[in-house]
Amino acid sequence: VKVKIPFGNKYLDAIFSVPAKTLTHGVILTHGAGGDMNFPQLVSLADYLASHGVLCLRFTCKGLNVAYRARAYKAVVEYLKLSDDYKLSGVFLAGRSMGSRAAASVIRQLSQDGDDDFIQGLVCLSYPLHRPKLQSKLRDEDLLFIRCPVLFVSGSADEMCEKQLLEDVVSKMKAPKKIHWIDKANHGMAVKGRTTDDIMEEINTQVFSWLTENIELKHK
After folding, report:
1. Which of 35, 86, 138, 150 could form a disulfide with 39 if both were Cys (CB 3.0 to 4.6 A apart)?
2. Cβ–Cβ < 8 Å for 56, 93
3. Could you tell me which CATH number the domain at 2-219 has?
4. Are 20 and 9 in contact (CB under 8 A)?
5. How far apart are CA 144 and CA 165, in angstroms?
């Protein structure tokens, strides 16, 4: 289902992947600095989640400034929260690369505003912890503030997320967290000798099982 989401005096293009059965939870998903919501990894994840009963709303926002991307993301969260078509009891924010930074920033803002009951967790695909070869300056400030569950899915050879550095940051986080390493994958989640479909299957099943664990914990 294609929708246009109001954002300031513009609209963001977005697509709902809607499950066949009644839904309680959703995932909002966005892309990295390049590309848009039709990036193959996002389409694959959205289809997988919807086929397993989780609503997925993915959107395009082309800005290259994280603060701008975060404002756009916040507008999408508000839109879904107020939606009459889909009454959800909670939503997980997810993004790839820069999109995951924007998602983390939104969660931090909403928790500081005391308005984060709707947000159930954060999924970071290829979180860009630092610029390539610039490991002295980490983009970890939002992560350290977050309290809701966080899943990182990263390549062990990601040039923007050195494995040991992410593990160090994660050990300092106060939130419940998990890292799933895709062995030998780079920032684009490519691995020599493995097909894209095979890697996507690994990512999709990891994300889905983590979501279900966290939804079940909430309802125990």
Report:
1. 35
2. no
3. 3.40.50.1820
4. no
5. 14
- DSSP conformational letter for 189: -
Cβ-contact 31, 37 below 8 angstroms: yes
The Cα–Cα gap between 47 and 42 comes to 9
* CB count in 10 Å sphere of residue 124: 27
- In the structure encoding, which two tokens stand for residue 130, read together? 């630092």
What is Dmax (Cα atoms) for the chain? 47
Q: How many CB atoms lie within 10 A of CB 26?
A: 26
Looking at this protein, which amino acid is placed at residue 160? M
Give the separation between CA 139 and CA 130, rounded to whole angstroms.
Answer: 6
Q: Which amino acid is at 45?
A: L
Contacts of 132 by beta carbon, 8 Å cutoff, 6+ apart: 159, 160
In the chain, domain spans: 2-219
The answer to whether the predicted template modeling score (pTM) of the entire model surpasses 0.70 is yes
Tokens 């954002």 identify what position? 7
Q: Is the dihedral of CA 28, 34, 36, 37 positive or negative?
A: negative
